[in-house]
Design a protein that fits this description.
Blueprint: E1 3-7, E2 10-12, E3 18-25, E4 33-39, E5 46-52, E6 57-59, E7 67-72, E8 77-82, E9 91-103, E10 106-113, E11 117-121
Parallel strand pairs: 2-11
Antiparallel strand pairs: 1-3, 3-8, 4-5, 4-9, 5-6, 7-8, 9-10, 9-11
């Protein structure tokens, strides 16, 4: 059974930095794609950043230039480096991953969510 575990959240002052990690455990051959999402109280969950196995990345306009997503395939871990944090970045951050598996000789993708990690930006 594959599990995603996020870590690295916490309380940080405006302008500060945090690095979130999302580690996939279980029988994993590779990670196809990972997205970081966030959900603030009373708001819908929104996508923050995404990365695919080849390394291509994309970001929400609200975090471009401040957040960086990266992947360490050897560790099955995806990182979200967050800098110049603002109070409006406060939210629970979740990672979501598409992880391949084989049904016989057919390669398929299964989707997983982590449990979330709280990020609070406040003075």
């Amino acid at each position: 059974q594959v599990q995603l575990v996020e870590s690295g959240g916490g309380l940080v002052q405006p302008g500060g930095s945090l690095r979130l990690s999302c580690t996939a455990s279980g029988i994993i051959f590779s990670i196809h794609a990972v997205g970081w999402y966030r959900q603030a109280p009373g708001k819908d969950r929104e996508v923050v950043a995404g990365i695919i196995a080849g390394g291509s990345t994309n970001y929400a306009d609200s975090v471009k230039g401040r957040f960086t997503i990266s992947i360490d395939n050897a560790k099955n871990t995806v990182y979200l480096q967050m800098s110049s944090l603002k109070p409006e970045d406060t939210a629970v951050y979740y990672c979501n991953a598409d992880i391949p598996y084989y049904a016989g000789s057919v390669k398929k993708l299964s989707n997983y969510w982590g449990q979330g990690t709280q990020v609070t930006v406040s003075s």
